[in-house]
Amino acid sequence: MVRTKKAYLLMVSVVMIFIVYVLYHNFVQDPQAAEFLHLKTDLKRTLHVDAWLTVMRIHVVFACLSMVAGAANFSAWIRMKYPKLHRMIGYLYLMCVLIVVVTSGYMAPYATGGKASSMAFNLLNIIWAAFTIVAIVKIKKKQVLSHRKWMTRSYAFVFTNLAIHLLTSLFHGGFGLAYTDSYKIAVYGSIVLLIFLAELVIRIVYKKA
Ligand code: HEM
């Protein structure tokens, strides 16, 4: 129990630090996303920068909100003391996921790495939306344990951007692969990694249930 609480606090800390970094980087340090867009060297279609930036900003804001909402709902204290709040935050999380998925769908055709990355992002869109909807269906059927497991699988995907950047740095900076190839590998790699991590957490946290 104590270990679970410590792991939860660690996760919340990572989420908070990451959110501050993402908001600072995308709204203060590089609001035109010049650094990121500069690396899109092999685009097959014209990128309308203003529209892309607007969509990307909506994407970032709701992505951060989904991280906060999800983290709040894993709190046993909120769940037990304020079940109505838990439900409201749950629907807020679902709405955020759907907005992130729709905005991602707009950006996917322009993804760094071309068609391979676009396909991986679309796969991510389907998986994330599906896992989240399954989690909601489970609680509608009063299957509490199953709901928590599916929400764990869903929440793993709020770490998509972090995982993509870490894996890209590993393959590009660490192994010396070209940036675009590293990015492609990172998008597919993050799907595998996040599904694996979710299953690991489920096995550790819910093993006695
Ligand atoms: C929930 C946490 C997430 C955050 C904080 C986040 C943040 C960002 C940011 C800042 C960008 C701009 C590029 C960059 O700096 O990486 C971006 C791009 C993008 N994100 Fe997300 N994102 C999240 C989750 C997701 C998920 C789950 C998906 C897919 C289902 C997704 C799909 C995309 C796509 C397609 C792009 C454009 C990539 C490109 O142009 O190469 N994001 N995201």
Quick rundown:
The protein has 209 residues and is mainly alpha-helical. The chain has one domain.
- What's the Cα radius of gyration? 18 Å
Ligand kinds: protoporphyrin IX containing FE
Distance between the termini: 13 Å
Give the count of helical stretches: 9
Strand proportion: under 5%
Order of helices and strands: HHHHHHHHH
Tally the beta strands.
Answer: 0
**Low-pLDDT segments:** none
DSSP helix fraction = over 70%
Secondary-structure class: mainly alpha
User: So what's the overall shape?
Assistant: globular
The domain tally reads 1
Sheet of most strands: none
Mean of all residue-level pLDDT scores: 96
Tell me what you see in this structure:
- Keywords: Membrane, Transmembrane, Transmembrane helix.
- This is DUF2306 domain-containing protein.
- It comes from Gordoniibacillus kamchatkensis.
- The chain is mostly helical and about 210 residues long.
- It has one domain.
- Helix content is about 80%, strand content about 0%.
- The protein has nine helices and no strands.
- Helix 3 packs antiparallel against helix 5, helix 6 runs parallel beside helix 9 and helix 8 crosses helix 9 (about 180-205).
- Bound molecules: protoporphyrin IX containing FE.
- Protoporphyrin IX containing FE binds near residues 107, 108 and 110.
Give the arrangement of secondary structure elements.
Blueprint: H1 2-29, H2 34-37, H3 49-73, H4 76-81, H5 83-107, H6 115-140, H7 144-155, H8 160-174, H9 179-205
Helix pairs in contact: 1-3, 3-5, 5-6, 6-7, 6-9, 7-9, 8-9
The structure holds protoporphyrin IX containing FE (HEM).
